[in-house]
Amino acid sequence: MIKVIPFTVSAGIVGFESPAAEYTELGLDLDALLIDKPAATFLGLAQGNSMVGDGIFDGDILIVSRAEEVKHMSIVVACLNGEFVCKRVDKQNRVLRSASKQHAPYQLREGDDFSIEGVVIRSVRMHKPVSLNRFQS
Amino acid sequence: MMYALCDVTSMYASVEKIYNPKLRNSGILVLSNNDGCVVALCPIAKRLGFKKFVPYFQIEKAAKEAGIVALSSNYELYADVSSRMFSILEEYCDELHEYSIDEAFMAFDMPLHEKDWLQLGYDIRKAIWREVKLPVGVGFGPTATLAKAANHASKKLPGATGSSVINTIDERKKILSQMALADVWGVGSRLSKRLTDMGIKNAYALSQQPPKKMRKYFSILLENTVRELNGERRLQWDDVRPAKKEIYSTRSFGQRITDIEQLKFSLVTHCEVVARKLRDQGSLAGSAVFFAASSPHDDAPYYKRSVYHQFTVPTADTREVIKGAAAAIAQLYMPGVRFYKAGVGLVDLRDKNFVQGDLFNVSNDNPELMAALDSINARYGRHTMHFAGRGIEQKFAMKRRFLTPRSTTRWSEIPVIHCK
Predict the structure, then answer these.
(1) pLDDT score for B359
(2) Which residues of chain B have pLDDT under 50?
(3) A49–B418: do the CB atoms touch at under 8 Å?
(4) Nearest CA to CA, how far is A59 from chain B (Å)?
(5) Does residue A98 belong to the interface with chain B, where contact is any CB pair within 8 Å?
(6) Is B186 exposed, middle or buried (CB count within 10 Å of its CB: 0-12, 13-18, 19+)?
(7) Do B420 and A103 count as a contact with CB atoms less than 8 A apart?
(8) Chain B CB within 8 Å of residue A122 CB
(9) Is A15 left (phi over 0), alpha (psi -120 to 50) or beta?
(10) Helix ranges (DSSP H) in B187-317
């Protein structure tokens, strides 16, 4: 987003200055709303339907914070055996849970390569699809 | 006042592991421009005996056999992760001085004994690992030179834990006497050889030399180093990195160039780079040097030519630099030569605030236009807006055969997170 305050020039003879002119301010900034700590936040593309019960659909953008505390049953992004996965983390039972009946819980085992990357603090749904590839150069 | 130096262990290799989960447990090598030689290795690759600064073609086979993954330098990603780290470091100190892409000095405005510095080092390490996933070492000292020495100790000395402090005389003696001269900030390998010849064996021995004597035999810089090693502050941030007196942009081509148009395009790109760097440091250039050369390793006779161009009025305007390049190109180009390298240097630099006006020659610079150009490119990517003289399709563009996704700066390359 380009942060500019729109500035209109009004010459006295044309008419009255808009009474709203004094109230112009910066537009709303989605980053400021959705991202708590930019340095510790990354974005990812959700792929698959195992988290639909939590409102995360295929093609959604996940906003992931590494600064957020991981609590029991937090929705997290984890690195599991060489892949990023999105799951709810059942800390008491060391289980990764999906939010869909079709997807069985995953019991963490000895020898799994596992680390929690961050907490999914928000997700963005594209009701009208956006092609990320249009930003390719 | 306390200083700290925080730096990342194998920055490029460490960054590559953040957004590429498949690489977390593989050995990786990061290659220089044009995939020329190895510039960074992860600990796994180091353990297997691979080394830095080796040409890639020499070890390509061995690396593949060992299952080591070679990657091109992903500067977009490194720069983004680096700025994330710096913004977190800023929370911990009163002043941050970014020294390079992977290290920064921190300054703390408080008495030396007010804080548990060692613990602060651990806290910083933990925060940077948790929030950015980079491994760092932190060293503290009452001067920048001692902070740099403590940083070395935090990673390289036996029993290193990633944080170390030089605050007392005992700590200073213990760390400096285990440190080679060449590891002292400001003492290069040539200087350390001369010092060794004088019987000065290590950093501690250097710190025991009379400062005046060091100035007499060497320079005021070495006197400052000795004083700093004894806890006396001599260096300011500004001394740490003064504005550059010359700015160069040069690069070898991905493939040889024989065509005058391509050579011109490449020079124009370099003009854009140097002029932007010049504006970044608030200088004007009095002259420029343009050069082009073939490779000394090719069979044909070596060809190198450079053209010196003096600006009528000192400038920081990309258009003026490009005009100089356009005038130089006819002298640089030679039909039949397979050009391997070209570049632009801006020399005779001065501070833009201290330039005398010239009654007869008026500057054609347009600082507002240049500021607009710089801010557009800073915001939307390096070459969003560029000069037509650069050409649309560049044959010489850098070879980056093994480039990983620019995960944090391109929408089309953000990581996939599986929900399955």
Answers:
(1) 63
(2) none
(3) no
(4) 10
(5) yes
(6) middle
(7) yes
(8) no
(9) left
(10) 189-197, 203-207, 211-217, 220-229, 237-240, 260-280
Residue A107 has pLDDT above 90, yes or no: yes
Q: Which residues of chain B approach chain A closer than 8 Å at the C-beta?
A: 19, 21-22, 24-25, 83-85, 87-88, 130-133, 379, 381, 407-408, 410-412, 414-420
Q: Nearest Cα to B264, choosing from B347, B330, B348?
A: B330
**A46–B419: do the CB atoms touch at under 8 Å?**
yes
* Catalytic-residue membership of A115: no
pLDDT at position A1 is 40
Helix (H/G/I), strand (E/B), else coil: B208: coil
Shortest CA gap B153–chain A (Å): 28
Burial profile B191-204: b = 16 or more Cβ within 10 angstroms, e = fewer:
bbeebeeeebebbb
Tokens of B66: 């060992």
- Minimum-distance CB partner of A132 among B131, B407, B412: B412
The ipTM is 0.84
Q: How far is B417 from chain A (nearest CA, A)?
A: 5
Q: What is the mean pLDDT of residues A53-59?
A: 96
Burial class (CB in 10 A: 0-12, 13-18, 19+), B307: middle
Distance, CA of B242 to CA of A104 (rounded, Å):
60
Could you tell me the CA-to-CA distances from A2 to A5, B289, B380 in Å, in that order?
Answer: 9, 37, 10
pLDDT of residue A39 exceeding 80, the answer is: yes
What pLDDT does A75 receive? Answer: 98
* Nearest-by-Cβ selection for B412 from A37, A77, A135: A135
Asked if B165 and B231 touch (Cβ cutoff 8 Å), the reply is no
Q: Are B412 and B76 in contact (CB under 8 A)?
A: no
The DSSP letter of residue B37 is B
- pTM for the full model? 0.72
Q: Is B138 exposed, middle or buried (0-12, 13-18, 19+ CB in 10 A)?
A: buried
B72 versus A27: the higher-pLDDT residue is B72
Task: Write the CA distances from A21 to A6, A11, A16, A60, B50, integer angstroms.
Answer: 10, 13, 11, 38, 65
- Segment B306-362, tens digit of pLDDT: 888 888 888 999 999 999 998 899 889 988 889 988 999 898 888 877 666 666 667
